[in-house]
Amino acid sequence: MMDNDNQSAGLPAGTAKSAATKSAATKSAATKSAATKPAATKSSAGLASRIRNYFLTGLVVAGPVAVTLWLIWWFVTWVDNLVRPIIPEAYRPETYMPIKIPGFGLIIAFVALTLLGFLTANLVGSSIVNFGESLLSRMPIVRPIYRTTKQIFQTLFSSSESSFRRVGLVEFPAPGMWSLVFLTQPPSSVIAAHLPQTEHVSAFLPCTPNPTTGFFFYVPRDDVIDLDISVEQAMSLLISAGIIQPGGEDPHNKLAALAETARAAQAARKAVPSPAK
To answer: Is residue 102 a part of any domain in this protein?
Structure first.
């Protein structure tokens, strides 16, 4: 009887000891779990950051390629749609093939323009062109449109002209603020006769991010600062709103040099005394 009582008395003590052991093990597991949570959070954040960087890098690489291919495809399709209706069906490749060949209209347009230029360079072709221009010059509404368009095309595509081949800085729209301009030809004698007695240049100030619009004005040559950058670099600078700076090796130093040149020109202009009125 005594042994049985001792046995029954020892059971609660063992049970309490077991409960204490389980409680200690639970606390240890909770402590380990709390210690591993920050590491897991940091690891997941690092993985998300790497995935984002990889995605942005792939977007930067694939984006320009996709846009370039899309523009080429759009131009080729646009020319094909213009030229294909002019070609008789018997001479179209899709008449004998199950699919359309992209670029066929572009090839026809290139050959036709080349032949037109060849004929125009000859005496007979130039006579025909002169006769056509004389007819257009007699039409009141068509005449100004044709002459303006012809002058623009001659200026843009003629190798003897100096259109948009120089880039400069002009103090605009307020003192201390400088804008990029494209310099073209000096004003004609008719316009120069009404300008102040100093050398002027024609300047086109494009807008951002659409450089096809902007301001055109005649500015004194001394007020223009010539820049040692190409027209393509200036266009990239304007379209990107300053994100793509000229001079890929060290853009910050290049921009700082341009700003220093502008400040030096402004200081020199202030140092020159203004003429007495």
So the answer is: no
In a domain, 175, yes or no: yes
87 inside domain: no
Cα–Cα dist 116/121, whole Å: 9
E strands, 129-199, in order:
166-171, 178-183
Contacts of 265 (CB under 8 A, 6+ apart): 169, 225
Calculate the alpha carbon distances from 27 to 30, 37, 85, 95 in Å.
5, 15, 83, 82
What is the rounded distance in angstroms from the CA atom of residue 244 to the CA atom of residue 105?
Answer: 36
The pTM of the full predicted model, rounded to 2 decimals, is 0.50
Go through the chain and tell me how many residues it has. Answer: 277
Tens of pLDDT along the chain (277 residues) come to 444 444 444 445 555 555 555 555 565 555 555 555 565 566 777 788 888 888 888 888 888 889 899 999 999 999 988 888 888 888 888 788 887 778 888 888 899 888 888 877 777 777 877 888 888 778 888 888 888 787 777 666 665 545 667 888 988 888 888 888 888 878 888 888 888 888 888 888 888 878 778 888 888 888 888 888 888 888 888 888 877 777 655 555 656 666 677 677 767 767 766 555 4
Q: Distance (Å, rounded) from C-alpha 274 to C-alpha 245?
A: 35
Q: Which domain holds residue 186?
A: 166-269
Considering the domain boundaries, does residue 153 fall inside one? no
Residue 215's SS3 state is strand
Structure tokens at 62: 């694939």
* Number of domains observed in the structure of the chain: 1
